[in-house]
Automatic annotation (TrEMBL):
<dbReference type="Pfam" id="PF05130">
    <property type="entry name" value="FlgN"/>
</dbReference>
<protein>
    <submittedName>
        <fullName>Flagellar protein FlgN</fullName>
    </submittedName>
</protein>
<dbReference type="GO" id="GO:0044780">
    <property type="term" value="P:bacterial-type flagellum assembly"/>
</dbReference>
<keyword id="KW-0282">Flagellum</keyword>
<comment type="similarity">
    <text>Belongs to the FlgN family.</text>
</comment>
<dbReference type="InterPro" id="IPR007809">
    <property type="entry name" value="FlgN-like"/>
</dbReference>
<comment type="function">
    <text>Required for the efficient initiation of filament assembly.</text>
</comment>
<keyword id="KW-0966">Cell projection</keyword>
<keyword id="KW-1005">Bacterial flagellum biogenesis</keyword>
<dbReference type="InterPro" id="IPR036679">
    <property type="entry name" value="FlgN-like_sf"/>
</dbReference>
<keyword id="KW-0969">Cilium</keyword>
Length: 133
């Protein structure tokens, strides 16, 4: 149980870092700072890999504690009221950070895709739907 609790705390800290990196990425994209974008992308990739490893470990630990098809609700039920309330609050906060990171990642992806599309139009012109005869 301790490993699972520590993993939630570690993920919360990592998601705060990820949210900061996603804001930096957005700023770098708006300012067209390619080198900075590359550095930030590498940091994000490393952090996401770490988060995925911890997620898999959390599932493994929850499975050991509650059996197949674990859920955090099952894990919560194993705790006394005070630690349960604390873990539920921490888990809810983590879920909110995950949603915020997904939204920021989507926003950044859309911005970068739009910038790429505009650059392609500038470099190669508009595609003609109807070619002159």
């Amino acid at each position: 149980m301790t490993g699972l609790l520590q993993g939630v705390a570690d993920d919360s800290a990592a998601y705060r870092t990820l949210l900061g990196l996603l804001e930096e990425q957005f700023d770098a994209a708006i300012r067209h700072h390619q080198e900075r974008l590359g550095r930030i992308a590498a940091e994000i990739a490393g952090l996401v890999d770490t988060l995925e490893v911890r997620r898999a470990l959390r599932v493994e630990l929850a499975t050991r504690l509650t059996g197949p098809n674990p859920s955090m609700a099952q894990v919560f039920s194993l705790l006394r009221p005070e630690p349960r309330a604390r873990l539920e609050a921490d888990w809810h906060a983590l879920e909110q950070m995950v949603l915020a990171a997904k939204a920021a990642g989507k926003r950044n992806g859309e911005l970068l895709a739009e910038q790429f599309t505009i650059m392609q139009r500038v470099l190669h012109g508009e595609n003609q739907t109807y070619e002159p005869a």
